[in-house]
Amino acid sequence: MPRDGRMGDWLAAAGAVLAALAIALSAYAAHGVADAHARGAVQTAGLYAFAHGAVLLVLGGAPARRLRRLAMAGLLLGTLLFAGSVAGGALLGWPTRLAPFGGSLLMASWLLLAVDAVRR
Asked: Domains of the chain: which residue ranges?
């Protein structure tokens, strides 16, 4: 099974950046956000960004078929939409209408990973 190194490496690097941003979000939530609701939202965004960033980092380095690469791309986009929308809403007052789409994309991507695992 050939490994698409370029895309896998790119997704792994994006996962590492997501995890780093998640640490920054969590630190900012703990020390720079006074409003309890906003702090909780930023911490949630950080949690999702960290978890999915770590998954992308691990999976990006492994050989992957097209279905897994598609799922990993969905995890990245879903995380950006969900966590970005939640954090943007809490910190900048942005509308959070992209969060449900991002969350749905995350769920669909996890299901694609399950299908890929069964097909191996």
From this structure: 5-119
